[in-house]
């Protein structure tokens, strides 16, 4: 890649990161302000939106820091190792919390919206707020524990050390200490990041899709009942869209992984993938949250009025 194209890619990615971070901070600020004003009512949706927004912000910032080290050829620098460990820990935990928050949001709306005659599911529906809040807090705790080994990874001994303390990254990979089984840890972490959340998202999102189809057919038969559940339908669409964005990102990541060769991992493409994921999540959360959408509309109207 030429120097001009490389600089253009850096600037474009930097612009995307800034937009994504600001959008998610806006979602977080409006959501926290709304939760603070309505302290009497406790809804796990606000907590989930806050977790997704915070995770996306930290994910973008940590990914940008890692990418900067990669561009500056300092990713495998001995002097930058403590910073890389901390950044990788924040990055992985942010990914875990963001992915699992989407899974719990899909579960919450599936149980809350879809009708059922099962006594067990009815009992779960009555206690879904407590269940989702507890599950979300346990997810944050478990992701913290699961990502702790990244604070201990080391650079293997290598003869490719350069004069400025960096190492040749072609055949170099980060390793965990001897007391951690690296292969087992990788399988557990990857399972926690991808297959297990998918097992939660797919059944709940498919059930929401079935509910959408059933309700649409019922509305066509009886046009007088159009106004009743528009908000629920919008929530279903937004939640299913979030799951769709997550699954798309996973498929793209698997394509990257299938084409991966040692020393040629596409860091830039992976960063673009995560940045678009965080931006799409921010936009969908804005559409999902009535307060954030109203604030955004008022800001746009004010901007248009000022320009006129």
Q: Helix content range of the residues, please?
A: over 70%
What is the number of E strands?
Answer: 0
What Rg, in angstroms, do the CA atoms define? 22 Å
* Alpha-beta content class: mainly alpha
Provide a count of the helices: 10
Q: What share of the residues does DSSP label as strand, in percent? A: under 5%
Order of helices and strands: HHHHHHHHHH
Distance between the termini: 44 Å
Largest sheet: none
Overall shape: it is globular
Low-confidence stretches: 159-172
Q: Mean pLDDT, rounded to whole units?
A: 78
What does this structure look like?
The longest helix is centred in the first third of the chain and has 35 residues, at 3-37. Helix 1 packs antiparallel against helix 2, helix 2 (44-71) packs antiparallel against helix 9 and helix 3 runs antiparallel to helix 5. It contains ten helices and no strands. With 308 residues, it is an all-alpha fold. It is globular and about 70 Å long. The chain has helices at 3-37, 44-71, 81-113, 119-126, 128-147, 182-193, 195-221, 230-258, 267-288, 290-307.
Outline the fold blueprint.
Elements: H1 3-37, H2 44-71, H3 81-113, H4 119-126, H5 128-147, H6 182-193, H7 195-221, H8 230-258, H9 267-288, H10 290-307
Helix pairs in contact: 1-2, 1-9, 2-3, 2-9, 3-5, 3-7, 3-8, 7-8, 8-9, 9-10
Write a compact overview of the structure shown.
With 308 residues, this protein is an all-alpha fold. Helices cover 75% and strands 0% of the residues.
Keywords:
about 300 residues; mainly alpha; 10 helices
